[in-house]
Design brief:
The strands form 5 sheets. Strands 14-18-19-17-16-15 form a 6-stranded mixed β-sheet. Strands 6-8-9-11-10 form a 5-stranded mixed β-sheet, with helices on one face. With 687 residues, the protein is α+β, with helices and mostly antiparallel strands. It has 25 helices and 22 strands. It folds into 5 domains: 138 residues, HPT domain (Four Helix Bundle (Hemerythrin (Met), subunit A), Up-down Bundle), CATH 1.20.120; 132 residues, 2-Layer Sandwich (Alpha-Beta Plaits); 55 residues; 182 residues, 2-Layer Sandwich (Heat Shock Protein 90), CATH 3.30.565.10; 130 residues, OB fold (Dihydrolipoamide Acetyltransferase, E2P).
Length: 687
Amino acid sequence: MDMNQYLEVFIEESKEHLQLCNEQLLELEKNPRDLKIVNEIFRAAHTLKGMSATMGYEDLANLTHKMENVLDAIRNNKLSVHEEMLDVVFDAVDHLEEMVMNIAAGGDGKKDVTDVVNKLLLIEKGEPLSVQSSKKEGAAALAPAAEEKSLRGIYDEFELTILEQSKEQGFSSYEITVALRDDCLLKAARVFMVFEVLEKIGEVIKTSPTAEQLEEEQFDSEFTVTFVTKEEIGEVEKRILQVSEIISVASVPLSLQDLKNGSLGQTANEQTNTEKEIPDVESGNEATGDAQSAEKKKKNSKSMNTNKTIRVNIERLDILMNLFEELVIDRGRLEQISKELDNQALHETVERMSRISGDLQSIILNMRMVPVETVFNRFPRMVRQLARDLNKKINLEIVGAETELDRTVIDEIGDPLVHLLRNALDHGIETPEVRVANGKEEEGTVILRAYHSGNHVFIEIEDDGAGINRENIVRKAISKGIITPAAASQMTNRQVYELIFASGFSTAEVISDVSGRGVGLDVVRSTIESLGGTVSIDSKEGQGSIFSIQLPLTLSIISVMLVEIQKEKYAVPLSSIIETAIVKKGDILNGHNQRVIDFRGKVVPLLDLADIFDVPVFKRDEEYVSVVIVRKGDKMAGLIVDSFIGQQEIVLKSLGDYLTSVFAISGATILGDGQVALIVDCNALIK
């Protein structure tokens, strides 16, 4: 069989399983006795091992197998979870990630992992990793894992009611355990086929794992269903075995009396028993709680027909987006022709086409949206390691991970966030001793937060550390020649804070792997601004800092205000505009060799776009001038133009590699009349 056709799916699913391992290992570190977490990690590792072996990546499969052995020993109470063990397993996951990335880059996935394999073997045998570790064993090892309770037979009131009613109507109840082949490639598809067979002759009441976990292939090679039917159980088993890649079916009849007592006696498969969900029961309240939760449980116990999704190659979405961008350009052209011809029928048709294409645009843009969770997921592990390197205690809280951004923005935002997080951990959070001396808890907190606001997404990194020391920043900036002492005395706190984004600026006294090389925050600002976003800082000394990033939802199709300068047309992004104004020439003042206006009590400098873009001016004798007021953070400017054309949605096109250095122009677009309009970069103008 040619396995290359499955390579892309293998890489994506491997990344998902490894991400799950990382997340659950962090949880296990907090809750070392929770065997449910161990089972989650074991399932992910077992699935990855099977996929790797099937694809022929033996090194990957072998390392995963060794890691799986340690996890299996934990869940069978042969080993207890301790710090050194977790460090080795984390190390193994890192190696696995490197091997998968190597495969994704066209490599063979081979890597020398002898060291970590030997450590895993020692752990599996219960032997110390070193002489030093054996001395720490008694103190570092956590209490033995609690015995895993059998959850088989625990049903909530809703499920018991269904089983009782089924019995009254002449149905028989069974727990059926189905085993798939270890090399089964499409486990979810086989599960779906089993459910199709069962629902033709009865009804599925409960599954273990849950329907969602089965659909996402978060199980080993076996799963169990609670099933009611009037058919002979032998006939049921026979029909299930007709599904390909099923190797065995075992069934146990259910006794309602045993169900009510919470025990069943002989079981078909002990491993599956441990994975059943325990219903949450509080004092005086059944787990079903209300009708809504009961309905949810009913849906979960049904077949795999819900939440159908397919994987789509991102290149296909890019092609679809490019085609739609051409449609947007033609739509603008049709609207222009409709106005010129003044034909009612044509006008109505174009209006309808505009509405439909607007809906299509929303769908396509939503298809490209990706939760920021895909970026945020990598940070808990990074923070854990960095906190250890810095000898600090740090708790990372993630809020709003479900917030969505365009894929093109997601691809670029990862590195800036890494820099900001490292900055918060190194410069922001103090050591435990210093925090306690200052009356704080010894564990610092960093909050990574994302949320929507209008047509933008905000990402904030907040810490409860030492804050920013104004005097330190000013002293460093003066010593590096970034500002003069006279200028420093006139600067607000926020203006001083912004100096840390200057190229080569660093307040670190000692160069280390974490900071002090003067690289990082200037790259953060330039990357975010290249995405059409902004970054700002707020800080209180002794209390902490907040770095706030504002990003556009999408970079492909944007809303702009079209303006005219002589015979040339330019587009100003609406996201940068506060408002437009008509200003009397007599109201324009001069200060420090700069034309300014009084805008709502604030002095705003004026910039003539004709001068900036070297547009030949033939006639300007009017008493009034048209001004577009734009903003970047807390700074504003007024852009002088000849006239306003109107608002429009346009397709943003790059100027290409040859025109990257054009000042204050971020791209171009094709208008409805076929003309090219340049897009003004307001951030560059204000800067």
